[in-house]
# Entry
Amino acid sequence: MLVNSHSLAQQVLRDKQWIVPDRAWRSQQGAGTRWSSPASLQMSQTLPLLNSPAHTQIRRPLGNIFNQGTLADLQHSTEEMVEVLLDEFTDQLVDGPADFVALVSEKLPIMLIGKWMGLPSQDHDLLRNLTHDQVHTQELFPTASEIRVSDAATARLQAYFTNLIRDRRRTPGDDPVSTWIRTWDDLEGSPARTDATVHALAVFMVLAALETTSHLIANAVRLLLENPTQLALVRQHPDLVPDAIEEALRYDAPIHLISRVATANTELGGISIAAGETVQLLIGAAHHDPEHFTDPHTFDVRRRRGGAEDAPASRVTSHLAFGAGIHYCLGNALARMEATVLLTALLRRPIRLRLSAPPRWAPRVVFRRITSMHLTLVSTGHESSQRIDAR
Ligand code: HEM
# Structure
């Protein structure tokens, strides 16, 4: 069953009678199906695919990984990284159109997660490419060849993080992987079980952080360039940057679909669903549900504040881009901070930009991905012309 209603999607995410398609569910789908592939089995060990009580046993000791202190430290690093990336980007713009995705939005998330987890910068490209390959297993209908690509990426990610954990055991630091090893050694009492838990966590943090945040950043820039009035508003009122990011998350969520399984015979929106049946929550569609959002197809950076002054007030209701309920995204504060720092710094620069060609997209359903977005410099200057503009 496909769910495109915001209220029903939210209800399913918050209701304990709906669970995630975990390892037990996957094994019931039979050998030789996509669910028994190595990539799928590896995913089933990660936090968003655990059900209670296994989920609580991992999530509770993790706590709030991006608390205010950690976030403040990372914000400082983000500001420095953003300036370096934007310098490179604007240097390239002098020679003509430059790809914002390749130069900025794909780089920042791996630089930051790499800094947080202490991953050497020479490994960043590898990890980013493996993530792009692995994500096929999380698609709605992956082909057999995509599953093979995903399996190969999974094996390399597994080897990478096995080595990383071995190194961190030898030389512990104050990075999250070393902290998780200490935490689960105390809880588990078995180094092998600790390593398995930490491995699943470390792999998933990288997988969770990259494509999603890259999409948020590229997409927020795209939507502003395509909506010049909204861009002008944010230029005039920089305190609207976080609102523009929330609206980008609503308008075109990085994850368009979340799956859940019924634990008992039930009914949803008047339709009977048998125990064990899956529902696909179409988050992208729910974010354009007119029952929930006024003028859902309008990109309105003032939506959270009640909408544009001369327009009927948009309903101030939350989006589901980070999910809801017990699996609510643990990295939401990091992604929001990254996007805020990037957009603020970009808008502060004395440059005018426009899309030089329509962005290119990966042909996907679940994980949105802009593969390239070429921007070009309209002019440089200051005062009134100091703005990023759209065609
Ligand atoms: C714009 C960026 C991001 C988006 C749109 C996003 C979206 C989501 C969504 C929709 C879920 C819930 C999945 C479900 O209910 O089945 C989720 C879970 C999760 N996310 Fe994110 N995410 C983002 C960034 C991040 C980052 C940067 C990290 C970590 C560094 C992260 C870590 C996690 C974790 C650990 C979970 C699993 C939580 C649980 O199952 O308890 N995410 N994310």
